[in-house]
Specification:
mainly alpha, single chain, 179 residues
């Protein structure tokens, strides 16, 4: 109704916009659904592929075969397969956002950090979370996995930087999380 607060679901406008594009292009409902489902499926594959390529280039892993297996294992798991029954696009959006964000922040550890790089990376992460936002703050429980991963990243590299007396990197990492 008109008197209900709809601010919690405003984040789902982006997700519904993605759903409406095939309809605006003149596709029938059946083809539009196939296009939208294919979009989410290939976005899941592509985001995990970007993540593994960035991790390989950063030197965290040496296996070139992992780029072929990781996206398949990331996309086909019980958590996501259950989501296909109800087409939980909010769940898919955050599962897409997690590897994209980590493909930005993990290589920062091995590369030269600067204020400009932290600012640029935080803007890019904000753009990713704007597009793949989990449906707004109503979908806040879906952010649990992403927040746990970011918290573990922050704690691990905070202790690593402080134990190795890399105060500059520690401050720049905090600058990234502030932005």
């Amino acid at each position: 109704g008109f008197t209900m607060d709809q601010s919690g679901i405003q984040g789902s406008l982006v997700i519904h916009f993605i759903d409406s594009i095939p309809y605006f292009l003149g596709f029938s409902a059946q083809y539009a659904q196939k296009i939208v489902f294919s979009f989410w499926f290939f976005t899941l594959l592509f985001s995990s592929f970007i993540f593994i390529i960035r991790i390989e280039k950063s030197g965290f892993i040496k296996s070139h075969y992992l780029r072929y297996f990781f996206p398949v294992f990331y996309t086909f798991n019980f958590y996501l397969l259950q989501g296909w029954w109800a087409i939980e696009r909010t769940k898919f959006s955050l599962v897409v956002a997690a590897p994209l964000i980590f493909s930005i922040i993990l290589p920062m550890v091995k590369e030269k950090m600067s204020v400009w790089r932290m600012f640029r990376s935080s803007i890019l992460c904000a753009l990713i979370l704007t597009i793949f936002n989990g449906g707004g703050w109503v979908g806040l429980p879906l952010y649990g996995g992403l927040l746990v991963m970011l918290g573990c990243y922050y704690l691990f590299f905070t202790f690593t930087f402080l134990l190795n007396k890399k105060i500059r990197e520690f401050l720049l990492m905090n600058l990234f999380f502030v932005f």
